[in-house]
Amino acid sequence: MSIPFKKMHGAGNDFIIIRYQDYPFPEKFSELATQVCHRNFGVGADGLMVVCPSNLDSASVRMVYYNSDGSLASMCGNGIRCFTKFVFDEGIVSSKCFNIETPAGVLTVDVKTANEKVNLVKVNMGKMILEPQAIPVVYDGENFIEKKLEIEGKVFEASTVLMGVPHTVIFTEELNDDTVKYYGPIIEKLDIFPEKTNVNFAKIIDGNNIWVKTWERGAGFTLACGTGVTSVCGIAHYLGRVNDEINVIIDGGRLLITINEDGSMEMEGPAEDICKGVFFVV
Hints:
Blueprint: E1 2-10, E2 13-19, H1 29-36, E3 47-52, E4 61-67, E5 72-73, H2 77-89, E6 97-102, E7 105-114, E8 117-126, E9 144-151, E10 154-162, E11 166-171, H3 177-188, E12 198-206, E13 209-216, E14 220-222, H4 226-238, E15 245-250, E16 253-259, E17 265-270, E18 272-280
Parallel strand pairs: 2-3, 4-6, 11-12, 13-15
Antiparallel strand pairs: 1-2, 1-18, 3-4, 4-5, 6-7, 7-8, 8-17, 9-10, 10-11, 12-13, 13-14, 15-16, 16-17
EC number: 5.1.1.7
Enzyme class: isomerase
Subunit structure: Homodimer.
């Protein structure tokens, strides 16, 4: 069986996107994700997205997202920007402002175009959730903000929130790949995170600029993570360490996060095509 696909990226976070009508087998999406996302034996990507019809009157389309390891995720920030570009450029949605149904809720997106193609997408990411039971994190307090985690004798001050998916944020003055790649997978799988967690290490440069590196649950070290960047900015703002508009530096480029008066956050960043083709499934 052959499946038409498009490969896209948002700030270096790359994805395979297909239409439900081309592969209407949801029970096989997880297996397909592991195959098509494999960087040696497949096309290679951080995740697979499927464009599905929405049954909600409030949404134009539904996004289903799988990590490269085949695990289902409720939300992907960079992914939803690419998903938005795909459905607009392919004529599935014609409005420049529309709603997308996700397991994390219905999200509103706005597109900016150049030559009738999307080049920037703004997503209202909603509000971060602090309640430990909702994230989930095993903790009896009101929130899990600036709590100590000890890993192999090293103590981290960590904060964990739900931004569609669980995110743990550690602010540091020294940010490097080796630290993220070593401690990221350990923290991801700690027993206090029953559904695992994404792990973000961040350096606050000043009130308007943050540098972030992320270890993604189900995908590993990535060049960018939209929900991670949003979580970092939300926590930094909650702690009074940044302003309402933050430029975020990531390995794959830059994203802009705006924090609204009601606590909701908007993420703006690029979405770009890489290639398209046909993937063969036996």
